[in-house]
Amino acid sequence: MRTFDELVEMAVAYRGSADEVLSLMPDILSAEEIKQMGDDRILAAMAQAVFQAGFSWKVIRNKWPGFEETFEGFVPVRWKFMSDDDLDSLLKDTRIVRHGAKILSVRDNAILLCDLEDEYGSAAKCIAEWPQDDFAGLLEMLKKRGTRLGGNSGPYFLRSIGRDGWVLSRDVVQALIRDGVVDKNPTSKTALRAVQAAFSKCASESGRPFAHISRALALSVGPNM
User: Fold this and answer.
1) What pLDDT sits at residue 223?
2) Of 40, 83, 115, 163, which residue is most buried, by most CB within 10 angstroms?
């Protein structure tokens, strides 16, 4: 894979200057900052990523205050016990997007967060302290133990809470194929190990976080639309 500086140089052709490219880098938080988050905020971020998948992000964000009201602040221990009556009420509530499977994912992911609290002290602590050289493993855990957190929903959820990592968007995948890291959309464990190795190497050489490398890869193939 190209170096971070080379990716920025390529992006400059579309963005006008290195300063402009670097201004587009995502904000990330330290592990200590993430650990201060309540698991209610973790569940809310998971839910937002799930509901946004395959839907208009603008619509979900505009309706989000209604989601917060309807789900009573997304306290995991409340929603792990979602009842049939709760589900029936939610399916009738016009303040949210009434998608049954996505509503049920709030229950399932609340169970995951409660389990992680038992195992690590808090879900936020688990996410914050997960080794960066096994970011692919964190995504796999979310996919296997959570609900509807596969694909890019897991990475977008992590990005939304400031956790450093990649998002394998269409442009990022195109750049990884161009640079010979993978030969197609990386979904297999072997391909994801190759992605992990490429990001780890670039981060070590550049001192840049994965999120910045991911964004530079995307920008190196043209403006995001």
Assistant:
1) 62
2) 163
Paired tokens of 157: 């959820």
| 224 half-sphere exposure, CB direction, 13 A CA radius | 13
Amino acid at site 208: R
Structure tokens at 125: 């602590």
- Which parts of the chain sit beneath pLDDT 70? 223-225
Taking the C-alpha atoms of residue 224 and residue 147, their distance in angstroms, rounded to an integer, is 28
Q: Which position has the token pair 């001192």?
A: 207
Give the list of residues 6+ apart from residue 220 with CB closer than 8 angstroms, or none.
2, 7, 8, 10, 11, 175
For residue 193, the model assigns a pLDDT of 97
pLDDT computed for residue 225 by the predictor: 38
Please tell me the distance from the alpha carbon of residue 61 to that of residue 65, in angstroms, as a whole number. 8
The answer to whether 145 and 112 are in contact (CB under 8 A) is yes
Tens-place pLDDT, residues 190-214? 999 999 999 999 999 999 999 999 9
Query: What's the rounded Cα separation, in Å, for the pair 182 and 127?
Result: 26
Tokens of 155: 């990475």
The span from the CA of 153 to the CA of 91, in Å, is 22
DSSP 147-197: SS-TTTHHHHHHHHTT-------HHHHHHHHHTTS-SS---SHHHHHHHHH
- Read off the pLDDT of residues 8-22 as tens digits, 9 standing for 90 and up: 999 999 888 999 999
For 109, the token pair is: 């992911």
